[in-house]
């Protein structure tokens, strides 16, 4: 036992000095002066609001993407002790002392710094030289736009980090596949690929582009494996299952977990939950949950209810009526029934209350025991305050003449009988005997006489004129194909009516309501609803001063002013390193031309380069060229406001292509010693220009030192750049 102590215990480790140096330089360029400026910079005004809501546990919906990136920013605030108390209302607002600026900006800066060694390792794993890998890392290090974007509370640097991590992990996995399949390191890099892809998608949906690219590459690799006769069917099945587990199942589970944590953290009601369904709102602490707590679950004959339209956008609204009637004639000369108006009202009001009545009985109270209303039952809806019945008939609606007018019936002793019977159809029922439930049931009201469906048409059209108090139109929709959400209603507030006398009932309707609904809404139900809202809820896209088109990005014909000092000329811009952007475009062009040339020549059985060099060239096309294409070309199909920072993931892949092309030119086109020497000298001169441009634009990358008006004018290398110059 003691024999092992005869010799000293020695631990040896290999340290890649290149990686260490690149990481240190990345940290210096991204972390230096991180607290400056101590003011809100561009989209920090947007993301900061969500960080504050996380700190206060208040629910929100952000239509820009999944919650993982927001949670990472909030983690920085949490680690810094941020209490969420800051008014994020304008760019340039000075941060108060309770805002931990360094902590909030730390994670994006670290992500940006680690992109530098990741770029180095990707080129190494692609089997390019260490000089080429070092060049790629230094280009990422000196790219001004990547530095700017990573130094503030923004998500692009985090997105790029996870994208590069996913690519690197898959490349390491592929290289291990040839020699050590199913080893510990093989599993580690395969699983890390799936984790990184999930994180990239969880930060922004732009991460889907790279995820799809890696899935396509993995599918192509597996297709080649199928043709390998040395692999048994069992081995192929194991490979397939391993890839399915790591690249599909794990990302899906992780994506769901992001939402699970998001919903667990944000359990309090806030301004954003109004766009969610009543069931979702009732699951949040405060707000609707305070109103609905203790309500009866099952709607019965005699129930007093408010009916909220399920669509809920552009605003929520409730079925409503008041004593005013439709005008005898509208402005266009069409006539109306002159019955009592029925509308959809976007505010809570006593006139939103209705009583569910059994057509065969006169009582407006709940019997003992209550008789629940089920799917397919016929009911009458009595307006609580005016006691008039919800009615529709063959009279054109005020704003939708092809639909029927909906009113509360007034008997004028003319040949217009009441038509006030409605069939209850529970759309989300599990069986045809389901009971109509508070909040949970989504219901269509089908008119018995005409088969028209009660619809809040005002949510997808115009509001009523002044005679209707600009409230939203409600109609009987004759063509009721499908279940458009404007035709669906759910009971939000509910009580069992006890007062038969009208005056007592009015007092009852004015009093607040009191089965806990939240426990009936599962995580998957909440996730499905929230995911649908994120995908479908779109803010109106307005033209922004710094918005741009995808074509502007290639030549960097645009910039974004992120911050301007209130008194001096100090300012921060999202501007790229012109030398790097031009070189990246040139490298992409050279790569495409050479690839086309090689393909034509190989078709003629002429092989200009060795087969291993050709495979290396093709692998760069899949990773670098493919990464650029999938992260850039989709923006031509998007109808949204675009900004220069959307191009940064694609730019990162394009930068990786520069040393690939340079190494190829040096190895295969510069064959003599003289040419190689001249080519090396050109690379040194070119790299010096890259560093010169980096230094020239560093004042508007870091915001310091402040430049004079003349110096700022000298930085306007393109007329399309909007450099801010104060008038003297």
TrEMBL record:
Q: What is its main location?
A: endoplasmic reticulum
The first-level EC class reads transferase
Keyword list (alphabetical) reads: Endoplasmic reticulum, Glycosyltransferase, Membrane, Repeat, Transferase, Transmembrane, Transmembrane helix
Q: Does the keyword Glycosyltransferase apply?
A: yes
Question: What membrane topology does the annotation report for this chain?
Answer: Multi-pass membrane protein
Can you list the GO cellular component terms from the UniProt entry? Answer: endoplasmic reticulum membrane
| Bilayer-crossing regions | 15-37, 58-79, 99-120, 132-148, 154-174, 186-203, 209-226, 246-267, 578-600, 616-637, 643-662, 674-694
What does the UniProt entry say about where the protein is found?
Answer: Endoplasmic reticulum membrane
What does the record give as EC number?
2.4.1.109
One example of the protein's molecular function in GO is:
dolichyl-phosphate-mannose-protein mannosyltransferase activity
Q: Domain of life, per the record?
A: Eukaryota
Q: In which pathway does it act?
A: Protein modification; protein glycosylation
A Pfam family found in this protein is: PMT_4TMC
Q: Which reaction does it catalyse?
A: a di-trans,poly-cis-dolichyl beta-D-mannosyl phosphate + L-threonyl-[protein] = 3-O-(alpha-D-mannosyl)-L-threonyl-[protein] + a di-trans,poly-cis-dolichyl phosphate + H(+); a di-trans,poly-cis-dolichyl beta-D-mannosyl phosphate + L-seryl-[protein] = 3-O-(alpha-D-mannosyl)-L-seryl-[protein] + a di-trans,poly-cis-dolichyl phosphate + H(+)
Span of domain MIR: 296-359, 370-427
Record family assignment: Belongs to the glycosyltransferase 39 family.
Q: Know the name of this protein?
A: Protein O-mannosyl-transferase 1
Q: Which gene encodes it?
A: Pomt1
